[in-house]
Amino acid sequence: MKKILFLLVVVFTLISCGSTNVTKKGLVEKYSLNKESAHNWEESMSKVMVAEATNPDWYGEENPLVNFRKQGKMSEKEYYFLDYLGKTPANEITDDDFDRFTKILTSYVNKMPRKFIIEVSNIKDPKGLVDYMVKQAASPQLDNPSKYIKEVVADKEEWAQIEAFSKQSDLTSKDVKKLRKLLADFVKRSNFYNEQVWYQVEVSDRMTQLANLAKKQEKTKLELNNVNARALYLAYPQFLSKVDKWGR
To answer: Where would one find the signal peptide in this protein (predicted)?
Structure first.
């Protein structure tokens, strides 16, 4: 009996984990997709993808179809098919063509979620970054990200490494790799982002977007990564590449 209950729990868990993917039928019904939508594929697909994305970093805050082509997520075969739909009057699009259109759209929506991993190339000014972090952490300002990272997120050895980097005249390639690893480790931690602290940096739409992303209490690893990667960038935008340029 215990084995049966255990198996049922496992099956339920697997179903729950897989339920995040959208379905073709669900998208068609939710957005009233029809053959006119297929004909106007650039507009309709972009609209659906933006609406379904919980994080604008997934498509770089640009047209998601353009972003997909840059990332190589749209094949030439798919592009030529969609281009054919755009040149075909809606009343001449077949049921099979419409079905293929909705399948492509569904696959694109499900491909959007991505994990962001900071790379060495994403640190535009390593020395400037560590100098800024140390200076900001010592600031009399009540709250700021660097002070919060020093006091809450980093352990003594990690912060000592950042201070040591700041005392150097410049950082070697080996040093930058160590700095990248420190930042990547910070992003993995559940205590990295604090809404009140980050609002001390600026009150803006992008900070509000971040706060909304972070509202969910029990986050998946992907959700935690998305929140913290954006938080790291918004803390130091002058020193880091935009999040959509990070690795995955």
So the answer is: 1-18
Which residues in the chain come in under a pLDDT of 50?
A: 1-19
Q: Model-level pTM?
A: 0.82
Give buried/exposed letters for 20-48 (b at 16+ CB in 10 A, else e): eebebeebbeeeebebebbbebeebbbeb
Residue-range definition of the domain harbouring residue 233 = 118-243
Which own/partner pairs from 28-35 qualify as long-range (CB within 8 Å, at least 24 positions apart)? 28/102, 33/102, 33/105, 34/90, 34/98, 35/90, 35/91, 35/93, 35/98
Query: Is residue 248 a contact partner of residue 239, using CB atoms and an 8 Å limit?
Result: no
pLDDT digits (tens, 9 = 90+) for 221-235: 999 999 999 999 999
Last residue of a domain, one of 109, 139, 164: 109
Element (H, E) at 161: helix 156-167
Whether 63 and 155 map to the same domain: the answer is no
